[in-house]
DNA sequence: CGTGTAAGGAATTCTGACACG
DNA sequence: CGTGTAAGGAATTCTGACACG
């Protein structure tokens, strides 16, 4: 038995709060998920749940995209994939 | 300009998450608010938003009520009201 | 590629009230 | 007193798609 520990990784927020805190649109937030950049949990009925660290991540992603970085590259950063140079 | 600081006091969770984390019913959670024991924020449309510390508080309140303590007394504890003994 | 939007349905949340006690 | 519930409406969230480029 371990106590329920809360961390910045705990998925607790719904879309509305995430939109408000990141300033991003639902479309953007869902698209980043589609591109495997963020991984929210889902409630039994399918409602997305995000953590505080997801907020950080989302903001970071949006900044990079604004700079012209593609989602593919961002994904590699996040996943720490150092693919060999062909 | 101050950065948006996040703390355990930041109101970010909706009812569903609070219900899940506290194990309480909506009725109980709303009743404790009615009795001035908890103070969630409200989104523009009226949706309640709770903080992580609210979760702690709610669990604490429920435990006391289970022990037979009345909401009036709990409220005094919370508000630090040391009324004189008549 | 990254994002906006209209579309329709499903799930959430809200309030005020009746109930028991 | 503290909590359950049925009631009806309003707001949220979800998915798949068309659009631009």
Structure description:
2 copies of one chain form a homodimer. By secondary structure, the first copy, chain A, is mainly alpha-helical. Chain A has 4 helices and 2 strands. Chain A has a single domain, classed as Multidrug-efflux Transporter Regulator, Chain: A, Domain 2 (Orthogonal Bundle). The longest helix of chain A has 15 residues, at 52-66. The model of chain A has no long low-confidence stretch (mean pLDDT 92). Chain A binds a DNA duplex (21 and 21 nucleotides) through residues 14-16, 25-28, 30-31, 35, 43, 45-48, 65, 70-71.
Write the layout of secondary structure elements.
Two copies of one chain form a homodimer.
Chain A: H1 15-22, H2 26-34, E1 41-42, E2 48-49, H3 52-66, H4 71-79
Chain A binds a DNA duplex (21 and 21 nucleotides) through helix 2.
Name the features:
mainly alpha, homodimer, globular, DNA-binding, Multidrug-efflux Transporter Regulator, Chain: A, Domain 2
How far apart, in Å, are the first and last alpha carbons of chain A?
A: 49 Å
Largest sheet of chain A: 2 strands, antiparallel
CATH fold naming of chain A: Multidrug-efflux Transporter Regulator, Chain: A, Domain 2
CATH architecture of chain A: Orthogonal Bundle
In percent, how much strand structure appears in the residues of chain A? under 5%
């Amino acid at each position: 038995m371990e106590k329920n520990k809360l961390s910045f990784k705990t998925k607790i927020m719904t879309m509305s709060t995430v939109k408000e805190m990141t300033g991003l649109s639902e479309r953007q937030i869902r698209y980043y998920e589609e591109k495997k950049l963020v991984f929210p949990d889902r409630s039994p009925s399918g409602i997305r749940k995000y953590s505080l660290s997801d907020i950080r991540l989302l903001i970071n992603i949006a900044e990079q995209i604004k700079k012209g970085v593609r989602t593919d590259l961002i994904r590699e950063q996040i996943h720490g994939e150092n693919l060999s140079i062909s």
